[in-house]
Design brief:
This protein is of the alpha+beta class. The chain is 18% helix and 36% strand. The termini are far apart.
Length: 728
């Protein structure tokens, strides 16, 4: 090659290669798809999963609902072996289903209509697998239909009363007749039990199917809340009144009864002389004559377990758990009676972390099963033949949920899960198999089937590879998990989402998201849905998003979680303001463009932050916030603040309505007028105080929409993103 040609080649390389690289980069950039606001709600990034999973009795099969069909699958092969029920052939739209204990009858739910967050009415059908006959359970609409253990009857509620139907004859019997809307409820729960104690079905079949234990709620002294319903086209709005006990007000009076099917005898069970209490759960023990009743005092710092003789009604307290602050009601589901009839398992935070304990039937402690500076989160399986408890915990990290097995003696603990992230477990009744619903910070759900013995993966049931490909096409950015110190030097868990073309030499606006409620977790190594997609949208549009967990949040022990007791909002606000200041000092964050948003408790916090941190936050969006805790319900509010008459300062000090005069920045307040949970009254009260203080702000209400805004979340996200991009 001549010197001239060599020179030309060098020249080409020196000047043309950068142009080619730039061109290729532009091609890559043009290929990147843009996240749109509507993608947050339209299903574009929806995960697929294995839903409505039922483990079959023999342990070799499971069933699932797909394509309106209840299908049976082999555990070992993962292949479909039978269509148990074809809803299309029966002209039924199957919403959910359950089996009788012997699996000969399928109870099918159709036409489910929500009442509040968890309550519903529906139309139920019974499908006989042997005869392939289907028949309607009863006329009208029912709730919480449940087949008896002996496969002969179905109990359900309707119009505040409790009934049962004989499956063979179809004969129906009323257990109660005094139910009346807004007065007496039998067999299902009132509003506040549903919302805060997670109870809707308030009855239980005895193990021998000869009795039903049930709740009776007398809510006649509970004050009504009135919501106007703005029906489209109607000349006058309608009033909807329902019983809602606000902090410090009267609750329902609870009674527990045992009903004998054969004789029709009702026995009222002794739950103590006090009526200002809660009954968070009832359980049948292995003895069909003995009912376990959990009793919680009004301030929720003492939980008693009573054993009641259902024939005589007499009861005895066999175990008491006390706290200087409050008992976490989520523990109530952890009561399990062992097949030997002599012991039970329950959980407590008495050593500073949630752990499982084994007791004799008289309440004497046998041993602590799990122990350490971590949270034993959930019992997912109990193999009583091998005395093995399976549970998930935060032992690896507060940011993770891993699966463990331990002997009931507390020995021979072993970790079964391996991948770093979040493992949700559904285990078969015999504990031979389990489904692992796994995700991590940046990858959506992978559902895998495992054989417990040897911890052998049998098959990946869903890998969401199509979704992962789509995330790459839309250039989703990864979480950057970090910690940031509050003013006390304590580490707050947090993560960033930064623009894909992040430049450390540029200044970016910062948007903080938080929920902050007691025991909640927003920062973890788990794939999350709508908010994560929304935050990706902001990152793609030039914002840095920071998600932060303050003091009072979960997975870090009792002291960390319960520091907010009697002063909700104080430490959470201090932490978020401190974090915002610290992040504002970063070279690549514009300290004059820091915003915050949240929903529900998170809306309460974003309101407090824009008011108490008026020199730190430029913009805030609050969706459906509590603005004064006296407007919220008894069970939740008093658990953390006691009653208003007990703790006036705690209610007043961190109420946004009392800090309205501090507003300096941009504030958007959003609420649904049909919010049965956090009443629209909260936003009205805050708006009124802002007006009295002469403050300018923005607000929007959604007519008749409940706490989640129903079918108008798409509109909300569009409005919210537009507002933030204009104001921040």
């Amino acid at each position: 090659m001549s010197l001239k040609n060599q020179t030309m080649r060098l020249s080409f390389t020196k000047y043309t290669l950068p142009i080619i690289l730039a061109f290729l980069s532009s091609l890559h950039g043009s290929a990147q798809k843009k996240i749109q606001v509507e993608h947050v709600t339209d299903g574009t990034f929806r995960e697929r999963s294995v839903r409505s999973l039922n483990w079959m009795n023999d342990g070799q099969f499971y069933s699932a609902l797909t394509e309106n069909k209840i299908k049976k699958y082999s555990v070992l092969s993962g292949e479909e072996v039978e269509t148990i029920v074809d809803g299309n052939e029966l002209d039924l739209s199957i919403r959910s289903y359950s089996f009788s204990d012997n699996e000969s009858i399928v109870l099918i739910m159709t036409d489910r209509q929500s009442v509040y967050r968890r309550s519903y009415t529906a139309v139920f059908y019974l499908y006989n697998r042997d005869t392939e006959e289907v028949k309607k359970l009863s006329e009208g609409r029912q709730s919480y239909a449940t087949i008896s253990p002996d496969n002969s009857k179905v109990a359900f509620t309707r119009d505040n009363n409790l009934f049962y139907t004989d499956i063979i004859s179809g004969d129906e019997a009323a257990i109660t007749t005094d139910g009346k809307f807004n007065y007496i409820i039998n067999g299902s729960s009132d509003w506040v039990y549903e919302e805060e104690l997670y109870i809707t079905k308030a009855f239980e079949w005895s193990p021998d199917s000869k009795k039903i234990a049930y709740y009776r709620f007398d809510e006649s002294n509970v004050r009504e809340y009135n919501m106007q319903v703005w029906n489209d086209g109607a000349s006058y709005p309608e009033d909807y009144r329902y019983k809602y006990p606000k902090a410090g007000e009267d609750n329902s009076v609870i009674e527990i009864y045992a009903y004998e099917i054969e004789s029709g005898k009702k026995t009222k069970l002794d739950i103590g002389a006090a009526t200002d209490i809660y009954i968070p759960r009832i359980y049948w023990t292995k003895n069909a004559s003995l009912l376990a009743i959990q009793r919680l005092n009004r301030l929720q710092n003492q939980l008693d377990i009573l054993h009641a003789d259902v024939s005589s009604g007499s009861s005895k307290v066999i175990l008491t758990d006390k706290s200087d602050t409050y008992i976490d009601v989520t523990f109530c589901d952890d009561l399990i009676y062992l097949e030997n009839g002599a012991q039970f398992i329950f959980s407590s935070e008495k050593d500073g972390y949630k752990h499982f304990y084994r007791y004799n039937m008289d309440g004497s402690l046998v041993n602590q099963i799990t122990k350490g500076a971590f949270e034993a989160l959930e019992m997912v399986g109990l193999n009583q033949k091998k005395n093995t408890l399976y549970y998930t915990s935060t032992e690896e990290s507060p940011l993770e949920r891993q699966l463990y097995a331990v002997d009931l003696s507390g020995k021979s603990k072993r970790k079964l899960s391996s991948e770093e992230g979040h493992h949700g477990i559904s285990m078969s009744g015999d504990c031979k198999y389990y489904m692992d619903y796994f995700s991590n910070s940046n990858n959506p759900l992978v559902v895998s089937l495992y054989q417990t013995k040897g911890n052998k993966k049998i098959k990946v049931m869903e890998d969401n590879e199509d979704l992962k490909k789509k995330l790459r096409e839309y250039a989703f950015v990864e979480k950057e998990i970090f910690t940031i110190k509050n003013d006390n030097g304590q580490n707050l868990n947090a993560y960033f989402l930064k623009p894909a073309d992040f430049d450390v030499n540029k200044k970016y606006p910062l948007l903080i998201y938080q929920y902050s409620g007691p025991g909640s977790v927003s920062v973890d190594k788990r794939w999350r849905g709508e908010n994560f997609i929304l935050h990706q949208y902001f990152a793609q549009n030039g914002y840095i998003v920071a998600v932060i967990d303050s003091r009072g949040t979960g997975n870090r022990g009792e002291v960390w979680k319960k520091v907010t007791y009697k002063q909700l909002g104080k430490y959470e606000t201090e932490d978020l303001i401190a974090a915002a200041k610290a992040l504002g000092s970063y070279d690549y964050i514009d300290e004059k463009r820091i915003g915050i948003w949240g929903w529900s408790y998170g809306g309460y916090m974003s309101s407090l932050c824009i008011l108490k941190g008026s020199d730190v936050f430029k913009t805030a969006v609050a969706v459906a916030p509590v603005t004064d805790w006296k407007y919220y319900d008894t069970i939740y509010t008093e658990r953390y603040l006691q009653r208003p008459q007990d703790n006036t300062e705690g209610y007043n000090e961190n109420s946004p309505v009392r800090h309205a005069d501090k507003l300096k920045g941009n504030f958007l307040l959003i609420h649904g007028t049909g919010d049965d949970n956090v009443h629209f009254q909260n936003s009205v009260a805050l708006q009124n105080e802002l007006l009295n203080a002469g403050k300018q702000f923005d607000s929007f209400y959604y007519p008749d929409r409940a706490h989640g805004m129903g079918n108008r979340r798409d509109h909300l996200y569009r409005m919210m993103t537009t507002y933030i991009m204009e104001k921040l």
